[in-house]
Amino acid sequence: MIEAIGLTKRYGAKTAVHNLSFQVRPGTVTGFLGPNGSGKSTTMRMILGLDQPTAGQVTVGGHPFRQLPNAPRQVGALLDAKAVHGGRTARTHLLSLAQLSGIPAARVDEVLGVVGLQDVARRRSKGFSLGMGQRLGIAAALLGDPQVLLFDEPVNGLDPEGILWVRNLMKRLASEGRTVFVSSHLMSEMAVTADHLIVIGRGQLLADMSVTDFISANSADFARVRTAPIDPPRREKLTAALTEAGGQVLSEPDGALRVTGLPLPRISDLAHEADVRVWELSPHQASLEEAYMRMTQSVVDYRSTSDALEGFQPPQQQGWGQHQGYGTPAPPVVQEAPQQGWYAPPPPGQNPYATTPPAGAPAPAVPAAAPAPAPAAPPVAPAAPMAPAAPAVQTTKRDSNEDAR
């Protein structure tokens, strides 16, 4: 078992990990999640004794890693798949690790077969792809047949077959009673691999619970209802009926309704009573990715956008003519879904607001870039400069041929 108590690590004025406490128990695959820069790699390095904690302690099997007798036989780890001398072959690399730990040479050939590298065992690792390097790193972690295993992004660079193999490998290791601690940014993979989650943000613990409990605690299930888009009055009629029955109705960007507080059979009955034909009535259960994004959206240090639609907030529904100054905008039917950090953006071709901003919003990049092609057009437009282009190309070719001769 891995146990951290009040773990803290500072690098000068920067605190990478602050007062972090958790347990990684044997028999389960424990996922270690957090945004970039949250302190996951630093925590793993402190577990393995590569970094000394500023405060607190972390133990493996009740002892600090550096005090474990013959630690490679008890703990296996993959932190960096590139931590291999490129001039060594895969077998030579593993053989050197085995000799340092008193592991028989026969075990090297065994793990090469386990990870599928037996055919390239005598090739130098500098010619390995990222996926092959990951397999070699996993082989090194399994070399001592340890009871505790740590993997940092183990499926990076692997093809689908390799990802499935790693998933099954981790589950098998956990079923044997081993402690398996895995850090990954692939939420879909963690959802089907991990049994328990430890989530940190900015070096502090955010969650320590099972995958099922984590999704339930950080998301809300709802029903998606869709009516005919060409019949707004009936959509409004259904909205009123659902609201009167105690449901909460929000509008999604594509025109569907998000309904909470009512079970699906009750929604179906209300639609039937209101004589509204429903095109879609489906339950929505949040994924691990959605729950994770919702929990960590306030602790993300590096974001990919800073525009007015950050967070993919659905724009206020208004008529196209309002932005252009023509006509009267159609009034919104219901309140729009609140901003969620995990909310998927609508397809660009179906959202006119991707190119036309709401009233009062700062000038976006699209209008600002519109005048740019105008200055570039005059040099290209005249046909006269194009005539001498042919001799220039021919001259270049003759020079090239002369150089070749």
From TrEMBL:
Compositionally skewed regions (Pro residues) per UniProt: 359-382
Keyword set, alphabetical order: ATP-binding, Nucleotide-binding, Transport
Ranges of residues in domain ABC transporter: 2-227
Record's compositionally biased regions (Low complexity): 311-340, 383-393
SUPFAM superfamilies, alphabetized: P-loop containing nucleoside triphosphate hydrolases
Gene3D superfamilies: P-loop containing nucleotide triphosphate hydrolases
GO molecular function: ATP binding; ATP hydrolysis activity
Basic and acidic residues composition bias: residue spans: 396-405
Renumbered residue ranges of the record's region Disordered: 309-405
Pfam families: ABC_tran
Family: Belongs to the ABC transporter superfamily.
Protein name: ABC transporter ATP-binding protein
